[in-house]
Amino acid sequence: MKTIKVNIVTPDGPVSETEADMVIAATETGEIGILPGHIAMVAPLQIGALRLKKDNSTVNVAVHGGFIEVRPDVVTVLAQQAELASDIDISRAQRAAKRAEEKLKAKTDKLEAQLAELDLRRAINRINVYEQK
Q: Which of 21, 50, 92, 132 has its CA 20 to 30 Å from the CA of residue 64?
């Protein structure tokens, strides 16, 4: 079966360079599946899991915003943050979720509430990706 090259990059540097049979990404307009030979496109990503399927296994990556660029032979993910499921510190993610929930309950101003909600969504995404590995 043909594969597609996948590069995941953050401002801190490369996270993963691999190949996959299929890439599934959570974009702002919904989930998309990408196979080798896919039409070229660019889409904004939302906080969610990026799934890389190869043979009978799946590698999950927690992606926190950014863009996905698709070309027929290469998928490039330019993410604000990205972590492989195997690299996630689950206890740290759980502590971050608890802190964010406490900030939300504190009824802070609107901006602080929005930032806490984003922190909570990122923490929950990390936890979900970790549990799917």
A: 21
